[in-house]
Amino acid sequence: MSQPVLQLKNVSKIYHDTRVLNNVNLRLMPGQVYALIGSNGAGKTTLTKIIAGETKPSAGEIYLHGERVEIPSPFAAKKLGIASCQQNSVVFDELSVTENLFLGSGFKKKNGVRDWPAMHKKTLQLLARFGIQAKPAQKSKNLSLAEKYLMQFARVLLGRYQIVILDELTDSLTMAEVDKVYEAVEQLKSEGAAVIYITHRIDEAIRIADMIGVMKDGEMAALIPAEQAATDLIANKMLGKDIKDHYPKLSVASGEVVMRVQHISNKFVKDISFSLRRGEVLGIAGLVGSGRTNLVKAIVGVDRLDEGCVEVLGGGRKNIGYMPENRDAQGLFEDFSVAQNVTIKNLERISAMHWIKPKKEEEAGADMMYRLGIRAQNIHQKVRYLSGGNKQKTLVGRCVFSQCSIYVFDEPTKGVDIAGKVEIYNIINELVRKGAAIILVSSDFSELAGMCDRVLVIRKGRMVVELSRRELDQQILFTYCKE
Predict the structure, then answer these.
(1) How confident is the model at residue 65, as a pLDDT?
(2) Reduced to 3 states, what is the DSSP secondary structure of residue 225?
(3) Are the CB atoms for 381 and 334 separated by under 8 Å?
(4) What is the pLDDT of residue 89?
(5) Same fold, 6-91+143-241 and 256-482
(6) 7, 283, 301, 439: least CB-packed within 10 angstroms?
(7) Does position 246 have pLDDT exceeding 80, yes or no?
(8) How confident is the model at residue 385 (pLDDT cuts 50, 70, 90)?
């Protein structure tokens, strides 16, 4: 039997008196895809950050090719042949696409000068491979979050790494882009690289992995070979219970129109019109770069309109609760507590005579922690120390606490585990039952088909079709989204 390329022995990690990893063992073989799956806060990302040199273990040993090593930094990890694509995209907005792809490397001519034509040519090849509609010389700030994730992966493919870590890479991607990621992972595998693939999607783990490690409460709860894997088995190991209804859609009769979008256009979207009614969930679907996020940013006023108008009946745009796609850059205050992040959009609810009442703030934070299953030490814990999925649920909690009549959720379940998704869907049901209207942007076509009353499909900045609930199907959505 060949030697493991990577082995972890009894690795533990303690953050601020909280044990987030407890005696974790892992064996990774050359050419193996090892899926790590688990609930939000199970320790998946912390474990891979230790491997990638982004944080140090509190205890335990790491071996590469049988030799014990220390990995004190990401630079050291890279020298050891370890590359990582983490949840937070490392893309510099003011650099060009080519400059971002070739950070710390690049093609050079014989005289030592960078060969920009060759680098631009390679960039075009990688962009085409993942369907990213961008030019090599353009600044990266106009790329969508999903495109930035794909660009990180493309950067990894430029190197020759022994170990590649992919952390929730496909969360904002549609079926078409996910298939391209799978193809690239298979290529890495065929070249002998080992891949650690973090996901909360059980079907994805079963499809792509050779071995599935299930994490729960900071420990490796189960190790399941792919040929023995089954959805119910993995869900039970993850959660300790079965999830019977993944999309608990509540049927509510739609009421009067609460928003009219009339012929809006800017540099990202072209001549889009639709209406939104009280009590309905309106989905927006599209591939990476389609303009789906640009559309909602134009609706809520983040992006300027060149033509057309958005009419919000009863309160204007201040009556819209908006959850952006990029929670870290545009949504959360990472050094604020869970309770502060939940309440910050509606301070009037927790104030008297312009003074914030700490007890009311604490009660609001505790209520959202309970309703959404946010895993934190307490309501005073800083959000930066939460897992990605728990950060996402905190942002959903802020929207709900704002008590608006219209909610715009852009990828609300990104990075959230199965049970957490159902909790968010139940919150959506509660909102529409009380008469709110929801716009739901998602790259997960099954989510749109399961939770929406109708769906608008966006392609190249234009609305190409509107589908009613009886027409909604994952494959139909995919067919309309692709060119």
Answers:
(1) 93
(2) strand
(3) no
(4) 63
(5) yes
(6) 301
(7) no
(8) confident
Task: Choose among 449, 477, 441, 436: nearest CA to 280.
Answer: 436
What is residue 127's predicted lDDT score, i.e. its pLDDT? 86
* Residues whose CB is less than 8 angstroms from the CB of residue 399 and which lie 6 or more positions away in sequence, other chains included: 321, 322, 323, 345, 407, 409
| Residue whose pair of structure tokens reads 């009613």 in the numeric block | 468
Torsion sign across C-alpha atoms 282, 286, 291, 293: positive
Q: Which residues contact 171 (CB under 8 A, 6 or more apart)?
A: 149, 411, 414, 415, 443
State the fold for domain 6-91+143-241: Rossmann fold (3.40.50)
Average model confidence (pLDDT) across the chain: 88
Residue spans of the domains in the chain: they are 6-91+143-241, 256-482
| Residue 348 per-residue DSSP state | G
User: For 65-104, b where at least 16 C-beta lie within 10 A, e where not — what string?
Assistant: eeeeeebeebeebbebbbbbbbbebebeeeebbbbbbbee
Cα–Cα distance list, 158 to 83, 107, 124 (Å): 11, 11, 13
**256-482 under CATH 3.20.20.70, yes or no:** no
Element holding 130 (H helix, E strand): helix 116-130
DSSP string, 260-309: EEEEEESSS--SEEEEEETT-EEEEE--TTSSHHHHHHHHHTSS--SEEE
Amino acid at 99: E
pLDDT of 265-313, one tens digit each? 999 999 999 999 999 999 999 987 889 999 999 999 999 999 999 999 8
Residues whose CB is less than 8 angstroms from the CB of residue 102 and which lie 6 or more positions away in sequence, other chains included: 119, 123, 155, 158
Our measurement of the distance from residue 341's CA atom to the centroid of its chain's CA atoms, rounded to an integer in Å, reads 19
Burial grade of 233 (CB within 10 A; 0-12, 13-18, 19 or more): middle
pLDDT above 70 for 483: no
